[in-house]
């Protein structure tokens, strides 16, 4: 079959290039208008001082990620996390390091959780932050949470605080979990577009929107069991932290109305009555409370405090002890694509290159592969797994640490590791495979466009403008079935199970980390720290350092990165992100990028569609 992209895909690629080029042009023009400010800002001496007894303010704005996406440096400056507009990304490792460092810092007397701009983040990442907060509280230092409003993400972290403050006009909104999506079969029928689906796995529902108008009974069964499992972990943690019953977190409409009436219709008072929060306080009242708690700052009118970003900058200037032996950490975050991909995505070539870098580095004695991926290309997934095998052959243990999700291709690249950790709420499994080809012969025909010609074989004539013959579809389905057999055979071999045992828990079904442990798909529940400790143990290391292994930047990239890291705080906040044009461009960018991400040379995908709960 020809490897040439389809006509429709080439059109989408052209649209994407035009949109992306326009976005970069606008951002670059905006940047040059402030170039003088950047140059001045880089030269400013702005030493951060931490007063004794200060509160560390964890102003978590944006999304918490395992690895930041590589973006245009101009765009990165305009959307710096220091702007607190919720559009940035914060590294999970940075948050954990800051909290643990503050626990031992005598200058830090408390932590203030400010999560007003925290966006959606996987529960497993929030749990890791919560564990770090628990370690901080163990030192006897208090944690206080303040917000005008708490959603589920914000409240999960707030539950780890000693005292939760809420604005008197605010509310706590806990809704549970859901899984809804759009289905397109009727629309495709009206447009006369034929979606040819090839899959193996009763629960491999990624392609259901193209062949159904509703969720299949099998998908509903799997999804509700998964949602209940994840929510049970959430509720157990929060109820334990707050000493309230799990059933008090999400009320049915009748009970909610009854409690709201008791509070005279005031959501904040209801939150107090339910034990969700401890005190109601405006921003001014909280400021005065904190001045009483930690003291007034030497300058200004606020309490003694240091922000996450300023405190992190102090930590980065501290020299690390030089230790020869290293546990290398390689982050595999995002959709698995072919070729070389930037940071924040997984590339068959680029991620393999990182694994090779660890293999040929004599200082690296063991590797932790941190997987946070719903899968993607089957070919690229196997490329990466082959490099994991090469590491093991070289005598370097490989331990996988699963993040929010490690499913389908994410599980494929994990399966051959020496040891696998997951958190209780990690989404994993989804052992299945599918392929999809859309053809437009009927829609073109309705417009009076017909395709005809000759070819030397059936394969040479395949195109989106023609249909697929039953024989061709049978061949493709056979390849998909072989891919599924390879998948369950791989899992059976690596997890010491029979094919029948794996097939029974495979079929494309997604499991929580807790359930995956029961089923034998992972070895232990734990986070990244547990994985690093296990890798060091397997390599017989007593003293070791851990290091994230990344591709080296060019001198020009390093210069730009350093310049903007220093200057971004001085640039004015861009309002472009709030414009209608920018919102539309961003939405189209996401749609087109997702369309273009299906790039497997064999048209086979190990992808989990249930990993965006």
Summarize the structure in words:
- Helix 14 (348-360) packs parallel to helix 15.
- It is globular and about 85 Å long.
- The protein is built from 23 helices and 22 strands.
- 44% of the residues lie in helices and 18% in strands.
- It is α/β, with parallel strands linked by helices.
- Strands 10, 13, 15, 16, 17, 19, 20 and 21 form an 8-stranded mixed β-sheet that branches. It has a 6-stranded parallel β-sheet with strand order 8-6-5-4-1-9, with helices on both faces. The chain has a two-stranded parallel sheet with strand order 2-3.
Write the layout of secondary structure elements.
Layout lengths: L6 H27 L1 H8 L11 E6 L3 E3 L7 H6 L10 E3 H13 L3 E7 L8 H15 L5 E8 L1 H7 L4 E10 L12 H7 L2 E7 L7 H4 L5 H26 L10 H10 L4 H7 L5 E2 L2 H12 L10 E3 H9 L9 E8 L2 E2 L8 E2 H13 L3 E10 L1 E3 H16 L4 E10 L1 H4 L6 E4 L4 E3 L3 E7 L1 H6 L23 H25 L4 H7 L4 E3 H7 L4 E2 L2 H11 L6 E4 L6 H13 L12 H17 L8 E3 L6
Parallel strand pairs: 1-4, 1-9, 2-3, 4-5, 5-6, 6-8, 10-13, 10-21, 11-12, 13-15, 15-16, 15-17, 16-20
Antiparallel strand pairs: 7-18, 14-22, 17-19
Helix pairs in contact: 1-23, 2-22, 4-5, 4-13, 14-15, 18-19
